[in-house]
């Protein structure tokens, strides 16, 4: 196995650089000299109904306002203007269904359906600033619903379709959302899954009744019944055939969407993104980092239920008027060639995926990509977690044929778009290290006191200057301040430093290597989960006294969830309780958060002040040398936990 960093370097080929959207490294200097006006470059990619005069208003920091006096509509920018520019027959979305079905939406098709659905939503009483929850799998109606909401100025809150009824209800309540768009069900590996009963269960949990739109995704053999206030999507569209809706003029700072993500507290946080700054930043990074051109066919494989799918599956590519591929299925159904076959058939130019997927491809073997003509690919990207050099090189050789640069992009739900990565036509790639901060972005790795650490040493990854894609707030302003700005800022001197929650180090060339989360957020195979969220689901199970959850990362894998639990008096830590714990997590969050291992222990390791020492459990889970255990109140428990782990 290749060691974590083998020191190899790769440069983009002259063939790539010649055609790249950005090939001149002077952009870094230019942005530095001209900050924050440099961000006009991003805003200029959009069409504004009212041009902005001010680029950045810092007076209410950390509630920064980008392009504060500008006005625009995101749906207009992603749809109408491409139609008006004579590109109405250009493909906007190429959709590949799970069962081999396909649909293409041109910009004209998109225009038509987005308008009809926007009219329908209005007809159902959705008003400007009402939050519409969208609980759909990867079907074209998902981006259409998002754009329809944006058109009428209703922020959307997309909840990943794999979340449970409980998780959906929590998010709807938190956002005060009284409108839901869902479907009857969806296909997974050829089987039909019921989505509507999950949605119905969530609705039962709400205080007020919600208006619901149901997309009929499954074939006739799987019927569903619509209750009062539940409407069929197709019928709504049909009843508004040909109707258009004037895009609502939104202030740049108005909310485009809310996206719930896990934080350090139990409840998921509603990350609020603005219309102007967010859209400008997702378009600019799509153009600059993913090198997307309007004539490209581009594929971001992330589910739109997460931020990557929002920024790089929907808003970035559609704002640029390119063709975005959307795939409903899994990468190994009907067989392990599925993705390569889609790339070949659609002649995909740029492919953006996650390291966890790449590691699965590697395991399956190179014969699958080798069997397909992938020569249309020009650029590859990754996001979601650090990519180990071995996976990087496999991706480079077997998918990119040694010719496509790879952008390893570090960013977060909160940052709205990419923050750290090489520019593909400019920077040397160092597998395992994401790269330098993007032009205009200022990253500092600091110690506990907020002082920059020396080159090569690890510390906390912070951003000490605002950027257009940044979250506007959380649904709770106090929490916004607490989560991101309280740790390293100096409010008395009006110095605001954003804390990402990640650890990192910076090398002598200014390249950032991201080391992973240092807070109570888990990153499991590209899904972001909170320890508290999972732990509270585990302790809700009858018989469980206490629980702690950590991530196991053996063998360089994307991570597995290990739940340590102690039982209440009179309960046995047996197979039955283990099953109940797994089911409890599935009900509270969703199957993707299911613990891979449940280990019963008489007690959890605690400090003298009674805090659970998760770090120690993490070392045990990963069979690493244990750090200092002398601060434990109950050091004898360590041996017992290790033994329990071996027995399990
Ligand atoms: C991790 C996904 C290393 C990181 C866009 C971050 C990464 C969290 C990378 C955000 C990368 C994302 N290298 N780690 N290239 N990209 N991460 O909010 O821990 O789902 O804080 O956003 O993923 O996850 P989120």
Main sheet attributes: strand count, strand direction, barrel closure: 8 strands, mixed
Helix content: 25-40%
Question: What's the CATH H-level superfamily name of the domain at 520-647?
Answer: ANL, C-terminal domain
Q: Given this structure, which CATH class of the domain at 520-647 is correct?
A: Alpha Beta
Q: Which molecules are bound besides the chains?
A: 5'-O-[(S)-ethoxy(hydroxy)phosphoryl]adenosine
**N→C terminal distance:** 28 Å
Strand content: 15-25%
Q: What's the CATH architecture of the domain at 520-647?
A: 2-Layer Sandwich
What is the number of strand segments?
30
Kindly name the structural category: alpha/beta
Q: Sum up the overall morphology in one term.
A: globular
Mean pLDDT: 94
The strand order across the widest sheet is 12-11-8-6-7-14-15-23
What do these coordinates show?
The chain has 648 residues and is an alpha/beta fold. It is built from 20 helices and 30 strands. Among the domains are: 58 residues, no CATH class; 128 residues, ANL, C-terminal domain (GMP Synthetase, Chain A, domain 3, 2-Layer Sandwich). The strands form eight sheets. Strands 12-11-8-6-7-14-15-23 form an eight-stranded mixed beta sheet, sandwiched between helices. The longest helix has 17 residues. The two termini are 28 Å apart. The mean pLDDT is 94. It binds 5'-O-[(S)-ethoxy(hydroxy)phosphoryl]adenosine. 5'-O-[(S)-ethoxy(hydroxy)phosphoryl]adenosine binds next to helix 11, strand 20, strand 24 and strand 25.
């Amino acid at each position: 196995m290749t060691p974590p960093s083998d020191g190899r370097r790769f440069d983009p080929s002259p063939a790539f650089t010649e055609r790249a959207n950005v090939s001149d490294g002077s952009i870094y200097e230019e942005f530095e000299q001209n900050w924050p006006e440099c961000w006009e470059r991003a805003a200029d990619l959009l069409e504004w109904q009212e041009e902005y005069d001010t680029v950045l208003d810092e007076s209410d920091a950390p509630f920064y306002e980008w392009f504060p006096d500008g006005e625009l509509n995101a749906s207009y920018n992603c749809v109408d203007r491409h139609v008006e520019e004579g590109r109405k027959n250009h493909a906007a979305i190429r959709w590949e269904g799970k069962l081999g079905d396909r649909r293409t939406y041109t910009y004209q098709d998109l225009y038509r359906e987005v308008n009809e659905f926007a009219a329908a939503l209005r007809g159902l009483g959705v008003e400007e600033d009402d939050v519409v929850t969208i609980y759909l799998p990867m079907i074209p109606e998902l981006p259409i619903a998002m754009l329809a909401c944006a058109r009428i100025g209703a922020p959307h809150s997309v909840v990943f379709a794999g979340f449970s009824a409980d998780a959906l209800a929590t998010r709807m309540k938190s956002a005060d959302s009284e409108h839901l768009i869902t479907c009857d069900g969806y296909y997974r590996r050829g089987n039909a899954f019921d989505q509507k009963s999950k949605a119905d269960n969530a609705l039962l949990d709400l205080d007020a009744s919600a208006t619901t739109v149901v997309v009929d995704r499954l074939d006739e053999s799987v019927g569903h019944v619509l209750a009062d206030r539940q409407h069929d999507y197709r019928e709504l569209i049909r009843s508004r055939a040909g109707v258009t809706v004037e895009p609502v003029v939104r202030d740049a700072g108005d909310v485009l969407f809310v996206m719930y993500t896990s934080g350090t507290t139990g409840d998921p946080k509603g990350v609020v993104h603005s219309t102007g700054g967010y859209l400008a930043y997702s378009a600019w990074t799509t153009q600059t980092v993913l090198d997307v051109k309007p004539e490209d066919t581009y594929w971001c494989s992330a589910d739109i239920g997460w931020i990557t799918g929002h920024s790089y599956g929907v808003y970035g590519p559609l704002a640029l008027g390119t063709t975005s591929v959307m795939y409903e299925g899994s990468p190994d159904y009907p067989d392990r060639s599925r993705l390569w076959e889609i790339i070949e058939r659609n002649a995909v130019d740029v492919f953006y995926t996650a390291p966890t997927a790449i590691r699965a491809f590697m395991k399956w073997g190179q014969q699958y990509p080798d069997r397909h003509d992938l020569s249309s690919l020009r650029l590859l990207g990754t996001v979601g977690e650090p990519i180990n050099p071995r996976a990087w090189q496999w991706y480079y050789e077997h998918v990119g044929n040694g010719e496509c640069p790879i952008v390893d992009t570090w960013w977060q739900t909160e940052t709205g778009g990419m923050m750290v990565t090489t520019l593909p036509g400019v920077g040397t790639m160092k597998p395992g290290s994401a790269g330098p901060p993007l032009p205009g972005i200022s990253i500092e790795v600091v110690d506990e006191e907020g002082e920059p650490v020396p080159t090569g040493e690890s510390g906390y990854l912070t951003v000490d200057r605002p950027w257009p894609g940044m979250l506007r707030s959380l649904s709770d302003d106090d929490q916004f301040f607490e989560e991101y700005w309280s740790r390293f800022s100096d409010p008395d001197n009006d110095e605001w430093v954003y804390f990402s929650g990640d650890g990192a180090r910076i090398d002598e060339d200014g390249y950032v290597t991201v080391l992973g989360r240092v807070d109570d957020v888990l990153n499991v195979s590209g899904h972001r989960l909170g320890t508290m969220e999972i732990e509270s689901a585990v302790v809700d199970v009858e018989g469980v006294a206490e629980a702690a959850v950590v991530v196991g990362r053996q063998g360089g894998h994307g991570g597995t969830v290990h739940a340590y639990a102690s039982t209440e008096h009179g309960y046995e830590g047996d197979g039955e309780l283990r099953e109940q714990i797994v089911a409890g997590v599935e009900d509270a969050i969703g199957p993707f958060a299911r613990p891979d291992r449940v280990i019963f222990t008489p007690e959890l390791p605690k400090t003298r002040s009674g805090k659970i020492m998760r770090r120690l459990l993490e070392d045990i889970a990963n069979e690493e040398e244990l750090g200092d255990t002398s601060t434990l109140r109950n050091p004898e428990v360590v041996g017992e936990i290790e033994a329990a782990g071996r027995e399990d």
